[in-house]
Amino acid sequence: NPPLSDGASYQLFVCAVNRVGLSSCAPPLSFTVDTTPPVCSPPSDLLASGKPAGSYFAAVGVLRSNWTCADADGGIFSTSWHAYAQLPGSPSSAPPTLLTPMPVMQRGAHGQAVAPLPAPAIEGARYFSCVTAANGGGVPSAASACSAGTIYDGSPPVIAGELVDAAPPAGGRYVDPSGPLQCASWGAMSDAVSGVASATVSLLEVKPYGAEPLVALAPHTLADLTCPAGGCRWCLSRDQQSALTPGATYVTKLVVTNGAGLATTLTTSGYTIDATAPTGGAAALEPIFFDGFDSQPSYPGSVSGLRFRVSAAGFGDSESGVV
What we know:
- 2% of the residues lie in helices and 43% in strands.
- The mean pLDDT is 84.
């Protein structure tokens, strides 16, 4: 018999013939030859929130997957899905850890499944899923289709040292807006797993009675910062500093976010703007006489050895006070 062709449709006839040559045939049986393996697209992994899994994630829960397989000839009979974990530091050739001992079997070309992630999740581990399919002829997929995976990072980024407000050459609790420009500085930013995705620094005006601070300057991103080796620095411009409200208190807020969306926030102790001189007062000079001052030979033309007491009153400063 000639070999059957892949993708071709055939009919099978079954007939019975008696001894006198009369025949009777059953209705023909139709079938399609399918020797080509089905193909599956990589699963689309979702996190517990239902959002697509990115390169990194921080919230432990479940891994959800959706997938589609196709076979042009015999269609998809069934699919088989597994979830895996690739431990950090393991070579790419090392077999991953199976999270679903029993495969999730489903009928049809489309499927979805859920696998719980281990708690606690392993820092730096990559979680992913794979799917295979069998077509109507029983031919399995040539290879598994696997998702890119998502890496667990449950630790926020690290900022070395403290966030400090300082005006060169020296900072302080009170600032003259016409004086040296105010700058904020902090140490190196790092994240061992997902890296530093963003850093923003803002100047906030502190309001009394526990009210929420007001954003005095829009947040500045990494592109606006000066970050030599070991730390970063951000300074106000002269126009920005001149526009600060006299008597108001400002703090600098730094937010550093990693690739998994976790953030570390630092805030300075702040400073108050003092743009006015102390209010005027009065001063008095009072000599302090001693016994025998009038017996000096030069008296009354001149007297030596006298001391004077200086007194002042009425000076004040409502912002930084009088020192």
